[in-house]
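Support request, please re-run this one:
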Amino acid sequence: MKNITVSVDEETYRLSRIKAAERGTSVSALVRSYLTSLVQGNADESQKVETESQRRRRLLNEVFEDICATRSGFKASDNLPREALYDRDALR
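Re-run finished. Output below.
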């Protein structure tokens, strides 16, 4: 494996470290993934760097899939009865 040196301004470096931390990886891994997808012509989608909106959409879809997998989803019967909701003595 070869090492390369890339120069970026301070703000770009700071923001790239934040993005890498959000994704649980390193800046080097992000650059490696980007360069790999670049030379492969994005043929391998698993190597594609995910944008923030794509990541949020993927996570939202995962939550919906988990809800649907339980087959119950959200039911009104799972909620507290109205009396319990407004029982202030129980909250103290």
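The chain has five helices and no strands. The chain has a mean pLDDT of 78.
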